[in-house]
Structure formats: C-alpha cells, structure tokens
Amino acid sequence: MTPGSGEGGPMKDCEYSQISTHSSSSPMESPHKKKTALKRKWKVFPGRNKFFCNGRIMMARQTGVFYLTLVLILVTSGLFFAFDCPYLSVQITPAIPAVGAILFLFVMGTLLRTSFSDPGVLPRATPDEAADLERQIGNIEEIANGSSSGGYRPPPRTKEVVINGQTVKLKYCFTCKIFRPPRASHCSLCDNCVERFDHHCPWVGNCVGKRNYRFFYMFILSLSFLTVFIFAFVITHVIHRSQQTGFLNALKDSPASVLEAVVCFFSVWSIVGLSGFHTYLISSNQTTNEDIKGSWSNKRGKENFNPYSHGNIFTNCCSALCGPLSPSLIDRRGFIQPDTPQPTAPSNGITMYGATQFQSNMGTEVRLTRW
C-alpha cells in the first residue's frame, strides 16, 4: 500500500493542497485589494468644503460671490488695458500700462492664493480621542453633580490658559470634539474650526485664518492701489481727450472709460476702508472676530488687555505678515489607511485638537483650572 492510499490519505492530501493553495495566493491578492481601497482624505473630508485638482485647491462650498469678484476685476482691468492704456502710453508715458500690469498680476496672485488654500483648519478628533475626552468630561461632571444639590448645573465645557498674564478660555467644540486653541473659532458656513479665525469672506470664497490672512491683507491692499490707479488714469484719459475733441466726443470715443469710472468710484470706498480697518487690526495684533466681540482693550493697563500684542506697531505687523507660514494640519491629499489603528488621546489633561498639541511662542502658561 502506497503512502496516502489508505483510508483518509487522499482526503488529507486534498485538504493540505487546498489550504496551501489558498494561503499562497492570498499574499498576491491582498496588496492589490489594499491598493484599490485607498482613498484621498479630501474625498471624505467632514467639513463643508469643495476640493479641486485632487485636493490641492480647497474652497468654501458657496463660491458664487468669489466668481463675481473675479469678473469685476478681470472686466474692469481688461477694459482699462484695451481702451485706455493704448492712448495713455502714447500721449503720456508707457510706464502706465506697465505699472497697471504689475498691480493686476499681484492682485490676482494674492486673490487666488487666499481663495485656494487651507485657511488653518483644525483636524477633528478621532473617534478614540473624542471618546476619551468625553469620558474625562463625564467623570468630572459626575463628581460635580454628586457633591452638590439637585438643582446644580454642571460648569460649561471650557478650559483656561494664561497667555502673557491674561486668562483665556478655551471652548469645547461639539462638532469637532476638541477644545479649540486660543483665537480659534468654528465657521458655521464651512463647518470647520479654523486656527486664528478672522472671518469668513464670501468675496474670496474661503475662510480667512492663520494660514491665508497675510495673503488676504495683501490682496485688499493691492486691490485698493489698483482701483485708485485705474480710476485716476481713466479720469486723466477722459480729461486729456476732452481738451482735444470736447467732453461729449471724448465719451463717445471711449465709452468703456465711463463703465470703468463708475465701477471704480462705487467700489473704491469699501475697498480702501476695508484695507484701513485691517491695517488697524494688524497694528494691534487683533482679528476681526476679536474686534467685533470687543475681546480686548488696546490699553495695556486695562484688565482685558490684548495678550497677543507685542506692544509695538512694527513688531505686530512683522508678526502678522513676515513670520513663517504654518503647515497645514489636515493632510487633505494624504491616503486613508483603513488598517491603521486610530491614535488615542492622552489622558494627562493637555489640551489637544486632533493629533496636534497647542504650541505658542508667546510665553504661554497652561493652567487647567476647570472645565
């Protein structure tokens, strides 16, 4: 009797063959399955944002006003270069279209940089981090309820940190499941917590925060110069033609100048005013959100003095416009790893948002006094 020809022999060989075949083929199939299952993080991003160019461009969902901004700038500048610059370059100086082109390119560059970038969105807590944080909050609230009367209401979900001698409250975001770092706020339109949140600007189609504020400021400042520049030389063009052919004939010869003058006249006041307002904010190191709420006083001796101000206008401007650009925290173009375990949040009471710990270079002392 040959080996394996007895009772149960063929069955064992068959079973062994099936098992070995299955196990040898699975390593060849699993990498392919994992490769096809990977997705970019921007495809499942929880906020209300739109992404283009495989996640490289990030904007708010409502972008209709942004397209209006583009049309106004492109049409007004296009009419100026097409109808006014040929005459002005010959009759006055060719430097006029050159300067106008530089201003136009700078305006468009800063606008697109503001609109297409991550404003400083904070990552939401992972399920494990949120569960751990809720467990900590629940334990503290249970202790508070047990040691008080029946009508006691638990304290609000806040923490306190001390920044340059000023106590700042960190509020808990029920949507992102994090304690927001100082100066962060939740944008209701984009449904994201944004670091150093200034405001949501529909004209640029994005939030304005820590990572794109300097580009927003350079956009409105350069747009102010461009608007004044076009308006001034359109009027110069009309006056120069009027001296040669008369006022009515000048308007007939260049009807586009009338449209440019009207658009620039009605928009220059709001643009220049907005530039002046943000210049004041930068000089005092405040955000629009803080100024509207009246969070800080400009006087250092007051009880609610601004802890973020360096006490010097020049230093405040350099801090807002010339400091290093913070990296994006959401990694929107990264791949989702389904088999990777989620990191757990530390239980030592340190303020966390997502997987990033709050850091500051302004001498921040963390004092977790209460929730």
TrEMBL record:
Residues 20-29 have a biased composition (Low complexity). One of its GO terms (cellular component) is endoplasmic reticulum. Residues 1-33 are annotated as: Disordered. It is found in: Membrane. Its main location: membrane. GO terms for molecular function: protein-cysteine S-palmitoyltransferase activity. The keyword NAD does not apply. Its EC number is 2.3.1.225. It comes from the Eukaryota. GO terms for biological process: protein targeting to membrane. It is a multi-pass membrane protein. It catalyses: L-cysteinyl-[protein] + hexadecanoyl-CoA = S-hexadecanoyl-L-cysteinyl-[protein] + CoA. Residues 169-293 form the Palmitoyltransferase DHHC domain. The keyword Ligase does not apply. Keywords: Acyltransferase, Membrane, Transferase, Transmembrane, Transmembrane helix. The chain crosses the membrane at residues 65-83, 95-112, 215-239, 259-283. Belongs to the DHHC palmitoyltransferase family. The DHHC domain is required for palmitoyltransferase activity. This is Palmitoyltransferase. The lineage of its organism: Eukaryota, Metazoa, Chordata, Craniata, Vertebrata. The gene is ZDHHC14.
